[in-house]
Amino acid sequence: MTLSEQQLSLIEEFGVYQENNGFQPAVARVMGLLLVSDRAELTFDEISEALNISKSATSNALNMLLNTGHIEYTTFPGDRKRYFRIKSSNWRDLFEKKMEDLSHLNGLLKRVMDVRKRENPIYDAKLNDFISFLDYMKNRMPSLIHEWEKTRK
């Protein structure tokens, strides 16, 4: 598989972005490759070769992405290989999970405010602003999604 300089650069940029969100480097680059590849599905060997990573790193990355629901694979009759692809149908599930995570964080921050001594009013004000924003976002998000869906019809 031949990738353009633009594709390679974007894989790297996406990889760095995902690393900053807690992904391991190989996992992040596999996701980037599957997103920018001209083909929707890639084999294990194509992924390993395109990213120049070991078979072990490729296997670990694919297993992690499969287990977290970021990718899926398909097979074709007469071909024993698995073909991996981004599981694009689950973006809503991933978004809902992120919103649940933020809601959990918000609950934790509220509990932090309950147990903290009030010796730093500037910090408390900033933390309360963040809590308030998370509350606002949680309340507004369903209507934003609904409004967006109406534009899609």
UniProtKB/TrEMBL annotation:
Claim: Transcription is one of the keywords in the record: yes
Domain HTH marR-type: 22-82
UniProt cross-references to InterPro entries, sorted A to Z: ArsR-like_HTH, HTH-GbsR_regulator, HTH_MarR-typ, WH-like_DNA-bd_sf, WH_DNA-bd_sf
Coiled coil: none
SUPFAM superfamilies: Winged helix' DNA-binding domain
Protein's UniProt keywords contain Protein biosynthesis: no
PANTHER family linked: HTH-TYPE TRANSCRIPTIONAL REGULATOR MJ1563-RELATED (PTHR38465:SF1)
Domain of life: Bacteria
Name by which UniProt lists this protein: HTH marR-type domain-containing protein
Origin species: Pontibacter amylolyticus
Keywords from the UniProt entry: DNA-binding, Transcription, Transcription regulation
